[in-house]
Specification:
409 residues; mainly alpha; Growth Hormone, Chain: A; 2 domains; 75% helix; disordered C terminus
């Protein structure tokens, strides 16, 4: 059983890494994609919005599909589709081909994100301790690798398909081989008894009511993340007066601190509990936005983006983990539904900051995600509370404290 879980954890971490590479290769080459297909500035937002919208459709579909198909099988076949769709984005010539490739990418990403996190939640439950942050750390590492590969392609002025083809040729067979060791919840063997039983006929209403706070936290976390990814360079250059070269640094710093925070975050959860880690992350992230909004110059601004990476990095993985604790008998459905709000936050964040920046000021606009991320403090108890079998909402022990040693890991 130990070997099964370890191989499952390693193969799933690799899938997270590959997804980080693929997504970074897409979003960091948007200007090159726009030039290749002649997409106007007016039309570009429609193309960009279509991806998270279709990803939301894919995530909702996954909630239904997992009733008949194991999450491991959905992940096994959605990840190759994502990679092939990425190659299609780089290899097409007409706008309709771009639309088809992005549609396939978006739908497959929704299935991929949901199924990956389903497997992560079930593995964490089998381990009996926090490991969810390590999977998202692998995603952050993949994002750094993908952004670096994109920089190489842009630096050498390579055609998009030339940049993408070697990556797909290497990663596609690797994920197919690695998928042999995915572990579904039902394949992980006995897990610690949680004492939680979902009452027949009340599952949907109970899930929706208890999941709402986590959905809100997921949304504000991605509003913060999209603010950094879409506006950090412009903010540093136009508001804080940095050079164009220096303006590219904040997002890289953000990704690196996100990686470090997630790599260490599981240790914090095991020692202090999920509630304390989420509260600390929200406070650090809010402090980061405050520093960015009030920064007198570029270097202080980069300090703010560093704090943002350390704070925001823990919120999303712990939100998925909390959904798994709340609904141990229906975690797949909870994760799929929660995953939709990933894309809701992404869709809201960038337009919100842009509109506020144009109407008010970009400094003031940075205070809005600061306030929103503080909402997490209001719902922090949702990361620990679990309904008991009588629906009373009593607190249950942390995953780290339930059945420790039940499988010797």
């Amino acid at each position: 059983m130990t070997d099964v879980l370890r191989r499952g954890r390693g193969s799933l971490a690799f899938s997270f890494l590959v997804q980080g590479v693929a997504f970074a290769l897409l979003v960091t080459r948007i200007p090159a994609i726009q030039d290749r297909y002649g997409v106007s500035d007016a039309l570009l937002p429609a193309f960009l919005a279509a991806v998270p919208i279709l990803a939301g459709v894919g995530s909702v579909s996954t909630e239904r599909l997992v009733k008949r198909v194991p999450p491991s099988r959905l992940l096994r076949w959605s990840q190759p589709v994502v990679l092939l769709a990425l190659l299609g984005v780089g290899a097409g010539e007409r706008m309709v081909e771009l639309g088809v490739a992005l549609a396939a990418f978006g739908l497959a990403v929704g299935v991929l994100d949901a199924s990956m996190n389903m497997l992560g939640v079930s593995l964490q439950r089998s381990y009996g301790r926090s490991i969810m942050l390590s999977f998202h750390a692998a995603y952050s590492l993949g994002g750094i690798v993908g952004a670096s590969l994109a920089w190489v392609g842009a630096h050498w002025d390579l055609a998009l398909w030339v940049s993408y083809l070697p990556v797909v040729l290497v990663l596609l067979p690797a994920v197919l081989v690695g998928s042999r060791w995915y572990v579904d919840g039902g394949d992980a063997g006995p897990v610690a008894e949680s004492g939680v039983e979902e009452k027949a006929g009340e599952g949907q209403a109970l899930a929706f009511k208890l999941l709402l706070p986590l959905c809100l936290v997921m949304t504000v976390a991605y509003i913060g993340d999209s603010t950094v990814s879409n506006w950090s360079a412009k903010y540093l250059q136009d508001v804080l007066g940095s050079s164009e070269q220096m303006a590219t640094v904040p997002y890289n710093v953000y990704m690196i601190t996100t990686l470090v925070g997630r790599a260490l975050g599981d240790l914090g959860v095991r020692r202090f509990g999920a509630v304390a880690v989420v509260r600390a992350g929200a406070l650090v992230a809010a402090g980061g936005f405050a520093v960015v909004a009030g920064a007198p110059g570029a270097w202080v601004g980069m300090l703010g983006f560093t704090l943002l990476g350390m704070g925001l990095c823990v919120l999303v993985p712990q939100t998925f983990a909390a959904a798994g604790r709340l609904f141990p008998g229906a975690s797949d459905a909870a994760v799929a539904r929660l995953n939709v709000f990933n894309y809701v936050g992404f869709l809201i964040g960038s337009p919100l900051v842009g509109a506020l920046g144009d109407l008010w000021s970009y400094r003031g606009a940075m205070l809005v995600p600061m306030v929103l991320v503080l909402v997490t403090l209001v719902y922090a108890r949702s990361f620990a509370a679990q309904p008991d079998r009588y629906g009373g909402g009593h607190e249950r022990p942390h995953t780290a404290d339930v059945g420790r040693g039940s499988n010797g890991l």
